[in-house]
Design goal:
By secondary structure, the chain is α/β, with parallel strands linked by helices. 27% of the residues lie in helices and 33% in strands. It is built from five helices and seven strands. A seven-stranded mixed beta sheet has the order 3-2-1-4-5-7-6.
């Protein structure tokens, strides 16, 4: 089966010129990949200070214009407005909080871990055009935020 990065890239719209927020960015692998794929602005957020420190060190070593912040999902502020949000979730409770940083018509891609099913939660939060991409490391849901 394809690696997770390939599955995510298939689920995402074209990144060229777009702003992207990555919630649960870990050590910065995906933010760096998205910037290399043409994203105009990329912000990575994670609750783990140590992982953010790793990502920031890599950004200092090889600057590509990504900013990183430490935030816990249950207290995630509105991070600005983004065309695309990628989030790694093990519960649907925070979909509304994540969606608050997404422009109307923007794309949300969620890696659902622990067998989480998100279709109802996505619909309840105003998302449309929901597509499920199966992956062994967690199903990937993509959806468009309604107006």
């Amino acid at each position: 089966m394809a690696d997770q990065a390939t599955t995510l890239l298939e689920a995402l719209p074209d990144l060229a010129g777009r702003s992207v927020l990555v919630v649960g960015c870990g050590d910065g692998r995906y933010p760096r990949l998205f910037r290399a794929r043409g994203a105009r602005r990329v912000v990575g957020v994670d609750a783990d200070q140590r992982l953010i420190a790793v990502a920031q060190r890599e950004e200092e070593r090889d600057p590509v214009g990504i900013s990183y912040e430490v935030h816990h999902l249950d207290r995630l502020p509105v991070m600005g407005t983004f065309d695309i949000v990628l989030a790694f979730l093990d519960a649907s409770d925070h979909l509304g909080r994540i969606a608050a940083s997404l422009v109307a018509g923007g794309h949300l891609v969620v890696v659902a871990t622990n067998g989480l099913t998100l279709e109802k939660g996505l619909r309840d939060n105003g998302f449309q055009d929901i597509v499920l991409h199966r992956h062994e490391q967690g199903d990937v849901h993509s959806a468009r935020k309604g107006a």
